[in-house]
Amino acid sequence: MPEVKVNLGKSSYEIHIGSEILARSGPIIKELGVGSNMAIIITNPTVKDLYGVTLAQSLNQTGFKVRILTVPDGEAHKTLETAGRLYQELTKSHAERVTPVLALGGGVIGDLAGFVAATYLRGMPLIQIPTTLLAQVDSSIGGKVAVDHGQLKNMVGTFYQPKAVLADTSTLKTLPDKELKNGLAEVIKYAIIYNHGFLDFLENNLDSIKALDERALAEIVLRSAKIKAEVVAQDELDLGLRHILNYGHTVGHAIEATSDFNIAHGQAIAIGMVAAARIANKLGIMNSQTSLRIKKIITRAGLPTKLPDIDTASIIQAMSHDKKIAQGKIKLVLPKSPGNVFITDEVSLSLIKEVLQQEA
Ligand code: NAD
Ligand code: GLY
Question: Distance between CA 232 and CA 14 in Å, rounded?
């Protein structure tokens, strides 16, 4: 079973990637040496119905008593209020500082359960068990945990690294098409920002990936996890290099917010990645052929490349709101060529607007 190490000194951990890992999770967790015979699974009803029993059985067989805590499905529940309810449940369950918390689900569960594990009793061992493509390639790795607050996403949170990540690629077989595409947008992002060979691989294997071929899925999870692990190991606290993971996200976040989150994250960053490629091309940093190559892989993945009916001015306004957070400048990640990007805050709003209005 392939493993990827996230090298963070004493906080280092392994990402286990492969088929049917859930059924083998008990022994892996036992080997981490957690000092408790109880394990808490935090999940939602959708994922619990699909995978709760397999995970709980493996834990039981390894000698863990299991308590499953569920929260309703959806981003709307990634809140302090839900965290508060989970704290109460942990108290009722007599959870201790050594009791492992297992986040079983997509990024919403990973962020929420991670936040709860980081804060209850000043920190409990956290194991991320991601079941969406997005969570396997991105959110379960790197220790960002958070809840939303007011209208703002991920406003209250911290860095809290898991003890392990168990990415069972068989779980991706039940993923709705929309969620697969959301994750694929992040996978394409890695290929563009970090690794030229990965982009070739995606171009050659996209049809198998879309058909949920498990070998192809395991390969993209492995390659993406390696890239994320390398970036996080160099910049755990997101002070420099880690910003490259935001390729497509500056424009993407503004599109999501302007659409009241009706446009999915993956779709929004897909448009953002194409916009950034076009900006790079117009600035003479990247050739037209590469810009078209980026647009083509995004289209083939079934993701949009241009803005639906949203007023460009609203997008620019939403980015200007983010700008306040970034000391008055809009930061963009621009690609020079596949595997080679840089960060700049010198792109004019008018150029961003121009590429967003571009027709084809
Ligand atoms: P999600 O967690 O909402 O999951 C999407 C849907 O898929 C849900 O309805 C879920 O119940 C369902 N689902 C999960 N696994 C399934 C499976 N195997 N089969 C069928 N259905 C399944 O969405 P997501 O895209 O995984 O995560 C989005 C969240 O991740 C956002 O809150 C975002 O802020 C966060 N995020 C965090 C980081 C980070 O570094 N911490 C990075 C990126 C995104
Ligand atoms: N998802 C971006 C990061 O983890 O930094």
Answer: 13
Burial class (CB in 10 A: 0-12, 13-18, 19+), 151: exposed
Residues 139, 103 contacting (CB under 8 angstroms): no
**Positive or negative: CA dihedral 316, 186, 110, 225:** negative
Compute the distance between CA of residue 116 and CA of residue 5 in angstroms, rounded to an integer: 24
pLDDT in tens, 295-318: 999 999 999 999 888 889 899 888
pLDDT (average), residues 75-102: 97
- Mutational pocket test of ligand 2: of 139, 187, 244, 331, the residue with most ligand atoms within 8 Å of the beta carbon: 139
Q: Give the atom of ligand 1 at the shortest distance from the alpha carbon of 183.
A: 25
Q: Report the distance separating Cα 296 and Cα 32, nearest Å.
A: 43
Give the other-Cβ count within 10 Å of 349's Cβ: 13
Enumerate the β-bridge partners of residue 332. 344
Question: First CA to last CA across the chain, in angstroms?
Answer: 43
Structure tokens at 270: 């897909």
Residue 24 and residue 19: Cα distance in Å, rounded?
Answer: 10
pLDDT in tens, 310-343: 889 899 888 887 755 666 678 999 999 999 999 9
Cα separation, 5 vs 229, whole angstroms: 7
Provide the whole-model pTM. 0.97
Q: 180-212, pLDDT tens digit by residue?
A: 999 999 999 999 999 779 999 999 999 999 999
122-179 pLDDT, tens digit each: 999 999 999 999 999 999 999 999 999 988 889 999 999 999 999 999 999 999 999 9
Task: Work out the burial of residue 313: count CB atoms within 10 Å of its CB; fewer than 13 is exposed, 13-18 middle, 19 or more buried.
Answer: exposed
Ligand nearest to the CA of 154: 1
CA proximity to 1, closest of 141, 138, 164, 190: 164
Tokens of 259: 């659409």
- Taking residue 214's Cβ as centre, other Cβ atoms within 10 Å add up to 15
Ligand 2 atom with least separation from CA of 228: 4
Across the range 39-53, mean pLDDT stands at 98
Q: Nearest to residue 43, comparing CAs of 113, 98, 118, 111?
A: 113
